[in-house]
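Notebook entry, structure prediction.
Reason for the run: the old model in the group folder had no record of what sequence produced it. Starting over properly, with the input documented here first.
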Amino acid sequence: MRDGRRHRSGGAMTKPHFDFVREHYPLGPHTLYRIGGSARWAFLPETLDQVREAYEWLQSQRIPMLVMGGGSNLLIDDNGFPGGVLFTTELKQVNPLGRDRYRLGAGIPLAGVVRDIMLPNRYAGVGALTGIPGTLGGALFMNAGTVNGSICQFTASVSLVTPAGIETVMMRPELYSYRGQSFCGPDKVIVEAELSFSPSEKDEEAVYKHYIQRRQDTQPQGWCCGSVFKNPPGDHAGRLIEACGLKGTRRGGAVISEKHANFIMNEDNASFEDVLALIRLVKATVQERFGILLEEEVRIINAQSA
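New structure, fully documented this time:
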């Protein structure tokens, strides 16, 4: 669920020669919104070397680049993406390093980190990562988490493909913030991370079940990106939206959830513009009533501005 972009050049695009590239590749099925047109080129690498090859080609062409993981936090234009989309979903290597550390590929589902590593080893912090969709790379790109913590707090280092080659960044608290980070810019790709855990004195299985049940009780089920807006300081976006009386508001096939106002659902073949119209309505209404300009948590990929 990450994206980076480069400016288009006036020259002609050279056709990529890789076996793992697809032309006019539909993106909607690869997002949790199930919305979006096709990529001009989609790169589906299975190894780090293939990621580097695709990245170098994209750099040489100077065309827009979109990096995708699980597509859990993306709203993609129905007109598609005019450049190259680089998928990291097949980077699923797991290398235990000892002393409660693991080197993990960016394509591993975050749910798998919780289910297959944290719970069996009774590691602390399950409440921070339970129930979050998407891949490790996408989670790191947006510093995904809950009120109990975020993924970057468990991260010792991150490996990136950059214009200068592979770069490893040692994680420090000043490099990340609430739903944001400064270690991976728009021209880089997260490919790997080293996570560090600590043993828990609590029953983390019980914590896991509690938060899974809580999400089922409080969040709607269906095609959506999860929370559309970040919570403003000292408040909750969902509370503000609900206070504006916007629950149940519809535009085409999209609707602001009756169950949780910070969720915009694709209920009936919603279009990109349907969801975008509701996002704009929410922002304008909340700002007019409360003087608070909500900031999107979802990443909006508009073909015209790519």
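Summary: Residues 3-11 have pLDDT under 50 and may be disordered.
The old model has been moved to the deprecated folder.
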